[in-house]
Amino acid sequence: MRLIFTFFILACCMTFSAHAERADRDKPTDIEADQMVADDVKQVTIFTGNVIMTQGTRVAKAAKVVLVQDPEGYQYTTLYAAPGKLASLREKRDGGPDLWTEGYGERIEYDNKTEIIKFFTRANLKRLDGKIVTDDIKGEYISYNSKSEFYQVHNTSEGKSAPGAGRVKAIIQPRDKKGS
User: Fold this and answer.
1) Helix, strand, or coil here: 96?
2) Residue 12: which pLDDT band, with cuts at 50, 70 and 90?
3) Residues 6 or more apart from 39 whose CB is under 8 A from it?
4) Backbone angles phi, psi at 24, to 5 degrees
5) What Å distances lie between residue 37 and 40, 44, 47, 63, 97, CA to CA?
6) In the predicted model, what is the mean pLDDT of residues 51-76?
7) Which positions ≥6 away from 82 have C-beta within 8 Å?
8) What is the β-pairing status of strands 132-145 and 107-111?
9) What is the DSSP letter of 43?
């Protein structure tokens, strides 16, 4: 039987990116899973089995999601993929009617205190204009700081680059020049 659990607390679970549509932060977070286990004393909630998290335009999918809240109220979300699969995150960006960001990895971590998203193992981050991919970044590890818009991409899932460990890849489309 599927559990459906809805949190109506602002900033609950996932406030993923400064580029995310700002209206998303004021929306409730809906979480669907096959099972939920919550430890209120430790402030840890674990969802397992086809987890789908939705907050406004933001949708995350994973086999398992672990949510931890610190005493200050900041939340740390970790999404885990099923074996052989990828966890995913998709959200609308401000700045246009159909701008999106999609990210994938075997594990995705989000720290809503620092606003840093980390994608681990078979990591892929895409920016889309409608269905058209405008930027496509791949590596074993991608860290994105949404406050400073700073990316790091490495060829190992430990967040370091190592000779012979593979290559990172980026396809970045040219932007329209202002005044043209």
Assistant:
1) coil
2) very low
3) 45
4) -60, -35
5) 10, 8, 7, 14, 38
6) 91
7) 63
8) unpaired
9) T
**Reported confidence tier of residue 74, pLDDT bands at 50, 70, 90:** confident
What is d(CA 171, CA 7) in angstroms, rounded to the nearest whole number?
37
Distance CA 31, CA 122 (A): 25
Tokens read off for 71: 């005493």
Q: What pLDDT is stored for residue 114 in this prediction?
A: 87
For the record, the structure tokens of 139 come out as: 């590596």
The token pair at 28 is 């409730």
The encoded tokens of residue 16 equal: 């993923």
Question: Is the pTM above the cut of 0.85?
Answer: no
pLDDT tens per residue across span 152-169: 999 999 988 889 888 999
Report, as an integer, the average pLDDT of 120-127. Answer: 95
Q: Which residue in 149, 14, 154, 171 sits closest to 78, CA to CA?
A: 14
Instruction: Check if the beta carbon of residue 79 is closer than 8 Å to that of residue 52.
Output: no
Q: What pLDDT, on the 0 to 100 scale, is given for residue 179? A: 55
Number of other CB atoms surrounding residue 173 within 10 Å = 11
